[in-house]
Design a protein that fits this description.
- 26% of the residues lie in helices and 20% in strands.
- The chain is an alpha/beta fold and 578 residues long.
- Among the domains are: 116-297, Dimethylsulfoxide Reductase, domain 2, CATH 3.40.228.10; 483-577, Barwin-like endoglucanases.
- The radius of gyration is 24 Å and the shape is globular.
- The mean pLDDT is 97.
- Bound molecules: ligand MGD (2 copies), iron/sulfur cluster and molybdenum atom.
- Molybdenum atom (MO) binds next to loops.
Length: 578
């Protein structure tokens, strides 16, 4: 492998391969990267980063910072130490800090700010979450983009789905929606109803493979019976979809290879698991699993079929409603909880009663602002790592490109701590080799071994290899007041990294002027933002991007009913003039 090759570290579906060329980053020509990167990596060196450690506002040396960190940990009872790590860098070696903190007897986190509700719904039906890899979509005829915004969050999907027939289902007329053969501008939070109606329509019109269903989903008749209780026309009217659109969908997909591409947008609700479960039920009835060019592509488990070499057993608290106040020392790595966790007011107040907040990251933000000890990390070009993706099966070496005086790598920081606390620890190369052992060479790419290229070819991963259909279906017509809050990803930022958004977007027909300051309020709290008009939105929805300062004042820290996930779009929002 050439020394100048590495991979993008960011929490992103694409996991691009990168060539480092005298200070410039270029997307590799081969494979899924197609020779281009997104704007975050094209401008990577322009974003100012934290250059030196500091303690309570004073700049200190790295040696002093490590010594302070050791002192804070020594002075804290083990059960009052919390390790809070998020996904600022997706390298597998980032988990090395879990090894230290778990071995020490500290508390780690579980639950998810991202895809957990959707995953729970998938596991309920299929028994596991094995993803249709995006390369498989080159064989599809029709792609249904259901709550994913590929021009922003997964642009390397675009060359693969170019020239395919497209159906887009999204409350916002996204760029991909403008290119679609059929676009359904669905009412937010209504996707499971649409999935049920589409499934009912398949049954009514005998558009299913009886032999396949008898073998792998034999309870389909019971499911159909339940769907019979759902009134087609009133439900369509409620969700903002016409019968003609449903018929057009079937005209387009009949006898075709169909891929459904979903994202996190559909599951940021209390019942988020029900949505992915209903979409999977539709995919099962249409016979999309285990067939070439067909399937459902969500966020797979990037660590599927890979064992961790690190100690990971520990007491855990939720990442969604973390009780920071129960801890004396909180070590925050690759995360900005003061912006990205739900219910910012709760996060702020519980964090304020801890004694030591340590922030270990690349950029200044709300969390580095309140930290007692700030330790800059090395960026991905300055350290060695290896990564996998949640949308394809490649494993990618992240080779160190140059030495730098700035920051410390996760490995070196943990090496110092393990040494100080006499915890077993191996050479960096040994850990990387451990991960490499879960790969195989396939042409010129390294792939994770033991993953099915076409998942569920021989049935599902449930006990009887059959799909479990949803039970107790109901259409809960909400009559909550206020706007639906859409809080999805911005092209300018990666959550709160890079260039951050500062507006609320809403339809111009409302009584608010462009650039006018408005107060948004929910039952959790409020935030004041400037208005930007966007007529690609429905009139009943407003959009505040992830990473906007104060957006999570509006959201609640309840868990989804299944999957222990944050539910960023559950609360309704009122708007008033300031
Ligand atoms: N540029 C950029 N790229 C990113 C990120 C970023 O912050 N910026 N973040 C990364 C991360 S952490 C993740 S998890 C992925 C997520 O990437 P995506 O899965 O694409 O997630 P979102 O952008 O949150 O939402 C996708 C779409 O869902 C739609 N949506 C919202 N609510 C609903 C609904 O009720 N029903 C339907 N059908 N659609 C709905 C939104 O309008 C949006 O178009 O992106 C990654 N890539
Ligand atoms: N309102 C709303 N809130 C959301 C979302 C939403 O769509 N809307 N999305 C949710 C989702 S899907 C996610 S995944 C979460 C993401 O939440 P976070 O993971 O907290 O996201 P970021 O804001 O990207 O913060 C990542 C941090 O990692 C640090 N970092 C980057 N590289 C490295 C490194 O190599 N080493 C170390 N030590 N640090 C590094 C950077 O300094 C940055 O501050 O946010 C969630 N919050
Ligand atoms: S598209 Fe995603 S993986 Fe590719 S360079 Fe951008 S952030 Fe990195
Ligand atoms: Mo995410």
């Amino acid at each position: 492998m050439q020394d100048n090759l590495t991979a993008c570290p960011l929490d992103c579906y694409d996991a691009c391969g990168i060539e480092y060329d005298k200070g410039r980053l270029k997307g590799v020509r081969s494979g899924l990267t197609h020779g281009f990167l997104c704007q975050h990596l094209n401008h990577y060196s322009k974003f100012s980063r934290i250059l030196s450690p500091r303690y309570r506002g004073e700049s200190i040396s790295m040696d002093e910072a490590l010594f302070k960190l050791k002192g804070m940990l020594l002075d804290t009872p083990k059960k009052e130490i919390l390790h809070y790590r998020s996904s600022g860098n997706f390298g597998l070696m980032q988990e090395v800090s879990d090894h230290f903190f778990a071995s020490l007897g500290a508390t780690l986190t579980n639950g998810s700010l991202c895809d957990g509700a959707g995953e729970a719904g998938i596991v309920k039906g299929r028994g596991s979450n094995k993803n249709m890899p995006i390369d498989e979509m080159s064989k599809s005829d029709v792609v249904i983009v259901w709550g994913r915004n590929p021009h922003v969050t997964s642009s390397h999907l675009l060359p693969i789905i170019k020239n395919k027939k497209l159906i887009v289902i999204d409350p916002i007329k996204t760029t991909i929606a403008t290119q679609a053969d059929i676009f359904i501008q669905i009412k937010p939070h209504c996707d499971s109803y649409l999935a049920m109606i589409l499934t009912k329509f398949s049954f009514l019109n005998k558009l299913f493979d009886e032999e396949y269903l008898n073998k792998y989903a034999s309870k389909y008749k019971e499911y159909y019976q339940q769907l019979e209780n759902i009134d087609l026309l009133s439900t369509l009217d409620y969700i903002g979809v016409t019968l003609e659109q449903i018929e057009n969908i079937y005209t387009l997909i009949q006898s075709k290879k169909v891929a459904i591409v979903t994202g996190v947008g559909i599951q940021k609700y209390k019942d988020g698991a029900d949505t992915t479960h209903s979409i999977d039920a539709l995919a099962t009835v249409l016979g999309l699993f285990g067939r070439e060019g067909c399937g459902v592509s969500y966020l797979g488990n990037s660590k599927e079929a890979i064992n961790s070499p690190f100690m990971t057993q520990s007491r855990r608290v939720s990442k969604v409603n973390t009780p920071f106040n129960e801890f004396k020392t909180v070590f925050i790595q690759a995360a900005n909880p003061l912006c990205q966790m739900p219910d910012t007011h709760r996060v702020k107040s519980t964090l304020s009663s801890t004694q030591n907040i340590i922030y270990f990251g690349l950029y200044e933000n709300e969390t580095s602002d309140v930290a007692d000890l700030v330790i800059p990390a090395k960026n991905f070009l300055e350290k060695s790592d290896i990564r996998t993706s949640y949308s394809h099966n490649n494993m990618m070496m992240m080779q160190k490109q140059y030495e730098s005086e700035i920051g410390i790598s996760e490995y070196d920081l943990v090496s110092y701590l393990c040494h100080a606390f006499k915890i077993d620890f191996k050479d960096e190369a040994e850990y990387i080799k451990h991960f490499m052992n879960f790969s195989k060479i396939n042409g010129d790419t390294l792939k994770v071994s033991n993953r099915e290229e076409i998942p569920y070819t021989n049935g599902f991963d449930t006990d009887d290899r059959e799909f479990n259909f949803p039970e107790k279906l109901e259409i809960a017509k909400e009559s909550k007041d206020g706007f639906y809050l859409i809080s999805c990803k911005s092209p300018k930022s990666l959550n709160s990294q890079f260039k951050r958004e500062e507006f609320v977007y809403l339809h111009s027909s409302h009584d608010f002027l462009e650039n006018e300051q408005v107060k948004l309020s929910s039952k959790q709290g409020s935030v004041t933002l400037k208005v930007k008009h966007n007529d690609n939105l429905r009139r009943d929805s407003i959009l505040v991007y992830s990473g906007t300062m104060g957006v999570n004042n509006l959201t609640c820290s309840e868990h989804s009913s299944e999957g222990k996930n944050a539910i960023y779009q559950e609360n309704r929002v009122q708007i008033s003039k300031c």
